[in-house]
Amino acid sequence: MREEGEGYDDRRDEGRRVTRAAVHAASGGRLGAAHPRQEGPTDLRLVPPALAAWATSAVMLDAAPAWVTGTAVGCLVLAGVLMTLRVGRVGWARRVPGAMTGGRSGWPAVTAAAVLVCVAAAAVSAGLHGADLRRGPLPGLAERYATVIAEAEITSDPRLVRPRVRGPAPAPTAVLFEADVRRVEMRDGATVVTRTPVLMVVDVERRRSSSSASSASSAGDRPSPWLALLPSTRVRVTARVVPPADGDIAAVLRVRDPEVPEVVVEPSSAQRLAGRLRAGLREATDGLAPDARALLPGLVVGDTARITPELDEAFKETDLAHTLAVSGSNLTIILVLLVGPPGLAQRVERRGLAPRLGISLRTTALLGGALTLGFVIVCRPDPSVLRAAACGAVALLALATGRRRSLIPALATAVLLLVLYDPWLSRSYGFLLSVLATGALLTLAPRWSAALRARRVPPRLAEALAAAAAAQALCAPVVAVLSARVSLVAVPCNLLVEFAIAPATVLGFAALATAPWAMPVAKALAWCAGWPAGWIADVARTGAALPGAGVDWPGSWTGAALLALATVTLLLAGRRLLRHPWWCGACGVLLLLAVVQPPPLTRVVTGWPPPGWRFAMCDVGQGDATVLAAGAGTGVVVDAGPDPVLVDRCLRTLGITRIPLVVLTHFHADHVAGLPGVLRGRQVGAIETTAYQEPVDQAEFVRREAAARGVSVTRAAAGEERRTGGLSWRVVWPPADPTVVPEGPNDASVALLVRSAGLRLLLLGDLEPPAQRALLRSPAGPLLGGVDVLKVAHHGSAYQDPGLLSRAAPRLALISAGADNTYGHPAPGTVAALRAMGAVVLSTDRDGALAVTGEGAELGVAGD
């Protein structure tokens, strides 16, 4: 019996050799060329273990130790039983003639055992990582909001965070970084040694390099020294311990900003080298245009410290945020430069730098490994970077071997190893999006590309379109959960930036490598990389500014399921539409019109903006942004609101392309933070502001934005009169007397009395009762009576002077306020007082954007 089995094995091996020889002959003798029949069916055996480990990690992170132990032991016992039965069955089959019916008869048992083993490993790993959050005294101290002295080792790059504007002043700036607390000094003097993951939040103030605020225009800000700290640095801090909002940390340490961090242990040599390289790249990009200067470090090494909130929001609106983080594509691009076109990586005619330098394939693989290691070190070895390296290696291997089907097991292996290494990835949306995008590129994209090529689409365009569409189809439901919005411009924006990412990345890495040794060369390389980087930023800004760039969607998993169902329905309908080119063209035109929303067409369909509008109040949330019509496509903008995207979208809807003057009534953030959106893509003559330069940081922000675009900044004073087209206005506040010091920024607001044909408007900024009473007593007081339209001061707050309201006696009172704001704007008493005077009162929180039309008896107002 044994001899007969051995003969069977010999015959099977001989058949395999004959098959391999035939396949190699059919491939033309080229090393690595795959025969179409060589791959066979997709091997999915590793997918169940990877998914099982993923699900187990997500569940077991919060489980009690008894559940973790029981799950691990039970799974191992079951796996042992299955493998014992499998071995017994194989032995019985060998002893009984004819019992072995096929080589795959035992695979289900092996797969089930592998799943159980992976579940056990994932349970143990998740249990150990979950225990980190319960170890040591910090969890108990967080419940009491205690103040402690702790020694912490930084594990990530510090990042400067300023929350979005939600009031007159932006939220305090903070430096955030992840850390492991190593020592905690207790009140009784005892020192507890631990290793507990925390999030450190350092509240910082931007310091001036000049001693006086008067020199702020010429002096720059000195950044917080906390931003210079590198991973692996140990610092000693006095902090308040608070409970965490997320589950992957034990506590949050709120640190008061000392002048200099107390460093206990310097960073490691590897981190110092990485920090030197990153700092060199930042220095090399200092002379670039603002967008390229901010974006290039993010494209290359994920350094987003210079990305402005406005630019970051534009990337999110267009689903280009993945370009700001380290992704697998960064590594793939660099490795492709080394090995050449991936489809030829294992053939004798392979290209790239390696064969041109005479480097063998094996040595090339070693160099690729070294590049990958260097990539992880420079971009920081945190889980997101490790995920990017693994997924990038999978994508490159899929292209290099030409066997995409065989890379599904490779992707499953990467997922399995990463989840076992860091179980918190199982709850990470970023990890889920990375896996979905990589899976889309390996499964859907090749088929969609082949279908497009079959319909005479050029190969390169077909591959790019299929890749962008496949990734968007699988990732859109998850993105909708995060943003409660579906981007309609994601696919075209990703297509437009795809050709620019590779040169920006390659040139950026070249600048990174040369900066420490040859800064002039690095600056030249960075200048070249700035062109494609600037293009990427322009695409993001333009796409985000389109009126129909996205649609609101339920931000829940129910909404994600609905979007997935809608996507499947659209794909099924699209397959039939592809057979009818004319219908495809018509649908494309309709989608283009829905996204661009040309003002003439929008006016016909929606009635907004109404024909002949004179004054418009944009709906920008809790802030002010208004427009005075001054001719076709021309308008005077008064205040910019808190959000650049919202004000830009409003101006586009109104068709404003030329702005002779921007008036910023005062420097509170809810009036000036949106200035970049006003300046974007428009001809702006000048900016006029109040003479009271407080808050100082917002005044400096305005000057920086104006200087970057070459726009002059002037100061308004009472008595100034201007005219443009049929529009004229007079500044009635603040007084020109420099000895008059207002009580605060609100009372320094620029107030305007405007005439538009026969229409009189009074715009009061955020004036409060003291300044309102002073305005009544000023030389302009008698001119304020009987206005047609009043822009109510300070978002309709309760602080209004009855005398000024009575003098103005408006027919129409408009209030700009955000829905569900925490300030109680507009105040019911103010609204009631205005209505008692006979005024029609409308506000953006209830009525949306507002536009005033007509004059005299035909005065009207329309909402969007």
Strand order of the largest sheet: 19-18-16-14-13-12-27-28
> What is the helix content?
40-55%
Strand content: 15-25%
Helical stretch count? 29
Instruction: Tell me the Rg in angstroms.
Output: 32 Å
What is the residue-mean pLDDT, rounded to a whole number? 80
What can you tell me about this protein's structure?
With 864 residues, this protein is an alpha/beta fold. Helices cover 48% and strands 16% of the residues. It has 29 helices and 28 strands. The chain has an eight-stranded mixed beta sheet, covered by helices on one side. A seven-stranded mixed beta sheet has the order 20-21-22-23-24-25-26. A five-stranded mixed β-barrel has the order 1-3-4-8-7. Helix 9 packs antiparallel against helix 11, helix 12 (383-401) packs antiparallel against helix 13 (407-421) and helix 14 runs antiparallel to helix 16. The model is unreliable at 1-39, 99-105 and 206-221 (pLDDT under 50).
